[in-house]
C-alpha cells in the first residue's frame, strides 16, 4: 500500500482526483466546513435515513453528481480523538472493501488540521481492514483493489503527517508480520520455521541473528526450556536477534517472546474444544519479531535485542510428567506440577539468558494464562511489573498506539502460592489469581534488571467467525521502544 499526503482544504473536496473520497466527520459541525456540493450530498443522505452522526456509521455514494471522485464515503466519528478517528477510518475503508477503488483520498472535517497521530491512526486502520491471510488459502478473496491512500491536509501539518505516515507504515508492517507468523498452522510454523524467518529478517535489515539448536541450548544449561521441548519430535530453537542503532556500549532494550508453536498442554493435556487455537501460542514470539521489523524500519538511535525460546508442548513418550523436577539455567529448581504451565518454563531460561546483555530493561510478551482472559477479557493486555516508572512508560505507549493495556498487581504476597516441598518453586500456584502467580514465577528470574511482563492471552488473537491473529501488542511495543530513543 502506498501512503501519501496532499495539500487540500475541505471546501475543495469535490474537485479532488481519486477513485473514492472518504470524508470523516468529527461531530455534526463538521458539515459546515464542506463545500456546497458535498454538504448537499451529506444533507441528502441524512434526510433519507442513510447516514447518522453516530460512531461507526458510514455510507457509500456511487457516482454522486458534481464530484470528481467516482465514490464518496461519509464516515461519522464522535469526539475527534485518535481512537474514534481510527474507528471511523476503519468503517469508511470497510465500505470500500472488495470494491474497485484503487486510490482513496481521505479528508477529516471537524478535527482541526491533521496530525501525526491522526496519520498514524489512518495507516493502522487501513492495514487492519485490508489484511488477508493467504499462506494456506491462496484463493481467499482479495480485500479489494486499493493501492494508494492519500491523506488530505493543510500545509502546516505536512511535516507531522509525513512522520505519522512513516511510523504508521512501520508499525503496520510489524503487525502484518506478526499476524502472518501467528496465523500459520502449527505444522507450517514450527520452531525451525521461526528460526528461518528470524534469519530472513536479519538479512533484510542487516541485523545480527543467531539461531541456537538443541545442542547449543543444552550447553547453556537451559534445563527448564529443554524439559518442555523433550516431549516433541520437533526440535527446539533459541533465537537471538540484535538491532544496533547506537554505540555498542549503550545498554539495550530486550524483548522476550513466548514461542510455543503448539500447546497441547503436554501430559496435563488440554480438552479438544478449541485446541486448534493453541497454534497462536507463539503470539508473543510473533509480536517481538514484528516489533523488531518495525524498529529496524524506523532506525532509532538505540539498541534492541529480541529473544525467542521456541518449541512445541507435546505429550510424547519422553515428555515431562507432573511431579518432575528440573533445573533452570539460573540454578533454581522447579517442580513441574502441571505440564500445561509451559510458557513460564521456557521464558524463565530466556530471562536468565537476557542478563548477559546488561539490559536497560527487559519486557517479556506471552500468551501465558487463561486466567488473564478471565480477568481482562479480549480488550486489554495484562501488564505486570513492580517498577512504577516502567509501568508508566508502557502505559503511555499503550495509549499513544491505541493498543490497550491494564496494569495488574504483583505484590510479594502472591509468591506464597508457588512454594514446593521438592524444589525451589512449583510451576503453578492454583486457580486464584492465576495470571498474577504466573507473573510472580517469572519475576524470580528477573532480579538483575528492570523488568515488565505482558500477558497477551486475551489480545493476541480473535476467536469465532473472525478467528485470526491481531498482531498485538506490536503497536504498544514499537511505541515503547521508540520512546526510549535519545
Ligand atoms: N497457552 C496457555 C494459555 C492460554 C490458554 C492462552 C487459553 C489463551 C487461551 C498456557 O500455556 C496455559 O495452558 N496456561 C494454563 C496455566 C495453568 C495450568 C496454571 C492455563 O491458563 O490454563
Ligand atoms: Mn499451556
Ligand atoms: Zn501455552
Write structural notes for this entry.
By secondary structure, this protein is an alpha/beta fold. Helix content is 34%, strand content 21%. The protein has 13 helices and 20 strands. It has helices at residues 36-47, 82-96, 116-130, 158-183, 191-205, 214-219, 223-229, 283-298, 343-353, 370-376, 388-400, 434-443, 474-483, and strands spanning 2-7, 20-26, 58-62, 71-77, 103-109, 148-153, 208-212, 237-244, 253-257, 259-263, 303-313, 324-327, 333-336, 361-366, 381-384, 405-407, 425-426, 451-455, 461-462, 468-469. Strand 10 (259-263), helix 8 (283-298) and strand 11 form a beta-alpha-beta unit. Helix 4 (158-183) packs antiparallel against helix 8 (283-298). 53% of the residues are buried. It binds ligand BES, manganese (II) ion (MN) and zinc ion.
What topology does this entry show?
Blueprint: E1 2-7, E2 20-26, H1 36-47, E3 58-62, E4 71-77, H2 82-96, E5 103-109, H3 116-130, E6 148-153, H4 158-183, H5 191-205, E7 208-212, H6 214-219, H7 223-229, E8 237-244, E9 253-257, E10 259-263, H8 283-298, E11 303-313, E12 324-327, E13 333-336, H9 343-353, E14 361-366, H10 370-376, E15 381-384, H11 388-400, E16 405-407, E17 425-426, H12 434-443, E18 451-455, E19 461-462, E20 468-469, H13 474-483
Parallel strand pairs: 1-6, 2-4, 2-5, 5-6, 9-11, 9-14, 10-11, 13-17, 14-18, 15-16
Antiparallel strand pairs: 3-4, 7-8, 8-11, 12-13, 15-18, 19-20
Helix pairs in contact: 2-3, 3-4, 4-8, 7-9, 8-13, 9-12, 11-13
Bound molecules: ligand BES, manganese (II) ion (MN) and zinc ion.
Amino acid at each position: 500500500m502506498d501512503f501519501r499526503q496532499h495539500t487540500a482544504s475541505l471546501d475543495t473536496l469535490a474537485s479532488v482526483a481519486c477513485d473514492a473520497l472518504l470524508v470523516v466527520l468529527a461531530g455534526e459541525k463538521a458539515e459546515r466546513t464542506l463545500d456546497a456540493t458535498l454538504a448537499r450530498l451529506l444533507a441528502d443522505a441524512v434526510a433519507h435515513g442513510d447516514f447518522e452522526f453516530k460512531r461507526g456509521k458510514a455510507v457509500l455514494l456511487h457516482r454522486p453528481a458534481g464530484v470528481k471522485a467516482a465514490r464518496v464515503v461519509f464516515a461519522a466519528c464522535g469526539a475527534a480523538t485518535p481512537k474514534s478517528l481510527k474507528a471511523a477510518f476503519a468503517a469508511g475503508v470497510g465500505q470500500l472493501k472488495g470494491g474497485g477503488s484503487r486510490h482513496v483520498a481521505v479528508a477529516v472535517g471537524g478535527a482541526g488540521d491533521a496530525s501525526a497521530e491522526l496519520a498514524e491512526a489512518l495507516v493502522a486502520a487501513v492495514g487492519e481492514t485490508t489484511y488477508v491471510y493467504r499462506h494456506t488459502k491462496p484463493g481467499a478473496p482479495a480485500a479489494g483493489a486499493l493501492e494508494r491512500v492519500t491523506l488530505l491536509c493543510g500545509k502546516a501539518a505536512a511535516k507531522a503527517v509525513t512522520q505519522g505516515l512513516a511510523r504508521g507504515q512501520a508499525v503496520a508492517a510489524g503487525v502484518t508480520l506478526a499476524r502472518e507468523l501467528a496465523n500459520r498452522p502449527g505444522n507450517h510454523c514450527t520452531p525451525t520455521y521461526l528460526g528461518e524467518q528470524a534469519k530472513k529478517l536479519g538479512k533484510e535489515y542487516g541485523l545480527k541473528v543467531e539461531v541456537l539448536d538443541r545442542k547449543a541450548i543444552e550447553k547453556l544449561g537451559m534445563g527448564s526450556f529443554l524439559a518442555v521441548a523433550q516431549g516433541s519430535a520437533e526440535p527446539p530453537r533459541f533465537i537471538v536477534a540484535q538491532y544496533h542503532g547506537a554505540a555498542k556500549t549503550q545498554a539495550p532494550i530486550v524483548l522476550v517472546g513466548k514461542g510455543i508453536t503448539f500447546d497441547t498442554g503436554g501430559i496435563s493435556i488440554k480438552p479438544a474444544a478449541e485446541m486448534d487455537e493453541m497454534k497462536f501460542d507463539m503470539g508473543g514470539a510473533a509480536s517481538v519479531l514484528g516489533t523488531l521489523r518495525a524498529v529496524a524500519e524506523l532506525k532509532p538511535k538505540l539498541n534492541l535485542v529480541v529473544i525467542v525460546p521456541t518449541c512445541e508442548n507435546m505429550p510424547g513418550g519422553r515428555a515431562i510428567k507432573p511431579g518432575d523436577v528440573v533445573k533452570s539455567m539460573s540454578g533454581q529448581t522447579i517442580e513441574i506440577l502441571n505440564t500445561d504451565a509451559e510458557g513460564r518454563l521456557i521464558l524463565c531460561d530466556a530471562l536468565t539468558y537476557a542478563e548477559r546483555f546488561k539490559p536497560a530493561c527487559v519486557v517479556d510478551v506471552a500468551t501465558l494464562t487463561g486466567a488473564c482472559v478471565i480477568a481482562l477479557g479480549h480488550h486489554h493486555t495484562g501488564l505486570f511489573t513492580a517498577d512504577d516508572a516502567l509501568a508508566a512508560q508502557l502505559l503511555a505507549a499503550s495509549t499513544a498506539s491505541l493498543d490497550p493495556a491494564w496494569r495488574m498487581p504483583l505484590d510479594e504476597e502472591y509468591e506464597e502460592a508457588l512454594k514446593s516441598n521438592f524444589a525451589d518453586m512449583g510451576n503453578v500456584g492454583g486457580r486464584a489469581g492465576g495470571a498474577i502467580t504466573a507473573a510472580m514465577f517469572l519475576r524470580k528470574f528477573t532480579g538483575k534488571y528492570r523488568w515488565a511482563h505482558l500477558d497477551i492471552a486475551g489480545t493476541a488473537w480473535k476467536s469465532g467467525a473472525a478467528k485470526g491473529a491481531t498482531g498485538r501488542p506490536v503497536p504498544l511495543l514499537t511505541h515503547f521502544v521508540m520512546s526510549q530513543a535519545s
